[in-house]
Amino acid sequence: MEAILDQHRMTVLVGNGEEGNMLAILPAYHYDDTLDNRSEFTKQCWIPAKPETNFCIRYCWNGAASTALKKKAGLFCTLYIDELIVERAYLPLKGINKTGKNREWEISGKYYRGPDGPVERPFTFTETPIDDDADVLDTSKRGTIRVVLHWATPDPDVEHSRDLSKEAADTLALELETAVSSDNYRFQACVGLGVPEPSGVKENNMKVRPIDNKKYTFIFHYAHPDWLVNEGIIPPMVLSNFRTQANT
């Protein structure tokens, strides 16, 4: 099973995020939907958060080009990590065609405007800082990568504010890597932001409004591979492959 979630002709996946290489989709494991109360427009799975590996989020429209064109709308994405809003993106779909061109958008890190041009801090899984004096966490907000999609159309009258400063990115990095106590085994891996690098991301027009009230949610529950195998979510043989790859 791969880290690909589908619904209503929309797809969201988690890839390896390694620059210069062909995208490799992360492995995924079944998530028991009876564990929580979610809407019918929600898809979920487990993914291993192997420390010191980058990842990216990609979303796309797999339906007919005519559907998107008739709606005169594109797909707006809000990306939450540990329930913090990390990024927003808009896929216009106005240039969509049957070949697959202009059907997808990739988010590979936290974007901000630097003094010399756009900058991005890549998403990476990392070891969570340990502090036995750490405050008790609200665990319902930890260990999730949540993508919410909805149809939206351009509207110049929409007020849109978005903090694209370096300071905002630095603050987010600190919030994502909040320390946990040593006995909080479930959260021994977290999402971090890597070293800043020049970004080729183009800023789309974000002044858009929803065309209806439907939202489509895709949740990737992440945890350290050791925890996943101890819980029986990853078979032991699969875990040994993670360790072998980490040592090569």
From TrEMBL:
Stored InterPro entries: DUF7918 (IPR057678)
Pfam families: DUF7918
Top-rank taxon, per record: Eukaryota
Ranges where the DUF7918 domain occurs: 27-235
Name of the featured protein: DUF7918 domain-containing protein
Organism: Rhizoctonia solani
